[in-house]
Amino acid sequence: MVVRALSNGKEGTDRREAFIPITCMHCEHETPCVSVCPQQAVEFDKSTGIVMQMPQRCLGCRYCMTACPYHARYFNWWDPQWPPGMEKSLNPGVSVRMRGVVEKCNLCHSRYHDALQKAAAAGKKEIDVADYVPACVEACPTGAIQFGDLADPKDPATIAAKSPDAFRLLEAIGTEPKIHYKTTQAWIRALADRQSDRPTEAPHV
Amino acid sequence: MSETALVDRRWIERGAERASTMRFLLWLFPWVCLLLLGVYAAGLCFYYGLNQTNMDNRFAFGLWIFLDLTVIALGAGAFFTGFLVYILKQQDLKPVLNSAVVIGLTCYSGAVAVLMVDVGQPLRAWFTFWYPNTHSMLTEVTFCISCYLLVLVLEYIPVLVKNRQLRRVPSFLVFEHQAHKLVPVLAGVGAFLSFFHQGSLGGLYGVLRGRPFAYRQGFMIWPSTFFLFILSAIAVGPSFLMLVVATAEKITGQKLVDFRVYRKLGFISGVMLAIYVAAKAIDTYVWLNVTSPSMGFGPWDYYSYWPLSSTFLFTATVPLGLLPAILFIVPRTARHRGLLLLAAALTCCGVALNRFVMTVQTLALPTLPFDPFLKYTPSWQEVATFGAVVAYGVIVYSLSYRYLPMFEATKGE
Amino acid sequence: MFPWIDGFHWTPTHIIFLSLFGAALSAILATAAWGLWRTLGDFRKHLAAATCWRENFGELPAVEKRCRHELAGRLPSRQCDHAFDCRTCPNYDKFAALPANVPASRAGVSYSDNLLYHRGHTWVRGDWDGTFAIGLDEFAKHLVGSPESVKLPEVCDEVESEGIAWTMIKNGHKIRVRSPLAGTVISTGGPDSDFYLKILPHSQPNLRHLLKGPEVAGWLAAEVDRLQMQMSKGKATLADGGTMMPDLMDAEPGSDWDAILESTFIDR
């Protein structure tokens, strides 16, 4: 996930700024990265709607990175290096890949697995939505990120996503992203909908 | 003559005029240095990783991919000349056929070598063959290029075996005699494979829904860039072949082929180029007025950044596309060797620019509305690695010219 | 790749795609395999030497492919299109019936009317016991002089027609001498002997491709002319006519012996 800073371009008291986290949109329709991977290392899971990346099969050709319009994929240009001893404090549920492969948000798949195991232990087929919370949702101190089941119309996240203030990035391309943004600020909406004449300066990724 | 020179002379075709051993070694020396520098740079990339380059998460493809595409297009002369000679029976192009095969072999093997450096995990290269994703253009490219490299090696072997000393081994000469009859089959298969991979290299960008600058509609699963890349490759192949042979003539001081061959290559190049320019013009019109706006992107999204204004598009089409086509086709200009070679050089530049636009420009242009236009400068490791490919091509061609009967004109008396 | 592997999905396009590639790859490998198979076949049928010979002959310059009948004065000018193999030439009988027109004195180097000559400068003599002796002709002997070493085949080895009979080393040049006949080696000789090889053909051999009588004079005269041209390259021209001096390789070490030896022994 990368958090981008936006501004309305004005100065002084008229200046407005906002932060927009960009992560993998888990595109529903004709997912760009799925069709282009030459090794079938990217898979779209129909049951969860999650676009999964298999770094073990990734060749590192980076074609999926050129395909992704949201720049949500990251290549490991370096081998991960930890100060000595730090590896003991890493989360064992999340593996760290070596250099030369592409990674992206997988909606904390290890947590999904934990929720599945918990449901299986309780003899249930479906997971309890409350058991599956991605790390970014859990970490956000202001609760700016909501996570839920888009297929369930009663889910609070789904209701928020369907509100008139909600929008998605690059809708016209037709990838049907699952990440929705909600704002009452017209300037953010205008910016996101490509109505402005010039793009705003944003930090280099 | 010294002992070394005597031994060297024995490997050269009887009666063929070649530079002295010393002069040849002096010629090779800088190219070998460049090759070694490139191998070192590639070694750094293998050892330390791709952080040795200036590519990043926004510029995932850089100099290597752009030059790979260019070099593969330039090497298209191999399949197209073979197709013209063996399938369409254009025998007057036979003198340059061996050159075309050598150029093709070095272009493709060089491009594959650079691709191995470019991917993050080269040892996993076989995964594409074992887990192929048939929806991906890159799978198609991988399969085709691997097969075609095999074809080029098999086409090169009969040329190699005709070396004065190697032909003395009876099994080599007999094999060459037998294999010679089957070269038309190889030429046909090579043309089929080349057609697809040249196209798929264009298709790589044409299918990118996430990059409206590159995305094109097309015919069935193939975007228009598939067909445009084939046309431009066929147009530039004979041009590059002409340039290489002319350069060889200049450097060796010998007349290697009749001027008629140049004119024929130029005419073929010109016609294909003219068709390409027309097709590209139609495609650009459709793209700018229909495809791109339907995705929310208009021309102002592409051409308002310096230096990539509409002059880029104009340059690619007119001075580097239409002008050489005219020079090639109009008899008054085609009669002049200098103008013919100028047209060939312009065509090569035009195709390089086209590949640049489809790779580097596609990535430089922002897709997200708040993204800036990006710039990228290749690192010295990237430039050096590609310098090695150029050096490799020059060395292989020089060795082939010196020791093998590449052109019938220099054989015997 | 296999159907049970997790995360891999087979679709109909896989079948089409892999079939097309399978077909292309099969065609390529089949081509290579066919070439190898035919090559092996040529070796098994003892046709390898003949194939190599035809390949080499095809690349000779026109001036070295003159038909024997032209050299004998029977025809004004004709280039051999049969790799010097008169045994299978359809025009042989027609041309051989024409009168020869070469004086014996023109040769420039001695030869014998009792011997048959091969265009690779060996002679053939049929002996009473059905064997054939093969030796180096005077032209070749004058050229080479005393070779530093000679590598002959072993007794009971097979030689093939137009194959390599023996090799000689002189002044650092490796000379490969062609065999005019096919057969088994019965005995070996050398430069100090009357012959180099004695061979026993498998069946009664066809000797039509060997030169005899006045043809030899015409051919040798042409060979001496060629030799003079090749030796005088870059130097003052030697006078026409006259006889060939012996030990030329020692006498004129500066000449292009690679080219001269290749032309003489028809070995590229």
Protein model, in words:
The complex is a heterotrimer of chains A (205), B (413) and C (268). Chain A is α+β, with helices and mostly antiparallel strands and 205 residues long. Chain A has a single domain, classed as 2-Layer Sandwich (Alpha-Beta Plaits). Chain A is built from six helices and eight strands, in the order ββαββαββαααββα. Chain A has helices spanning 32-36, 63-67, 109-121, 135-139, 156-161, 186-192, and strands at residues 2-7, 17-22, 42-44, 51-53, 73-75, 102-104, 166-167, 181-182. In chain A, a hairpin with a 6-residue loop joins β3 and β4. Chain A is globular, with a radius of gyration of 19 Å. Chain B is mostly helical and 413 residues long. Chain B has one domain (60-380). Helices cover 70% and strands 1% of the residues of chain B. Chain B has a two-stranded antiparallel ribbon. Residues 409-413 of chain B have low confidence and may be disordered. With 268 residues, chain C is of the alpha+beta class. Chain C has one domain: Beta Barrel (OB fold (Dihydrolipoamide Acetyltransferase, E2P)). In chain C, the strands form two sheets. A six-stranded antiparallel sheet of chain C has the order 1-2-3-9-8-5. A three-stranded antiparallel sheet of chain C has the order 4-6-7. In chain C, α6 packs antiparallel against α8. At the A-B interface, α1, α2 and β5 of A face α7 of B.
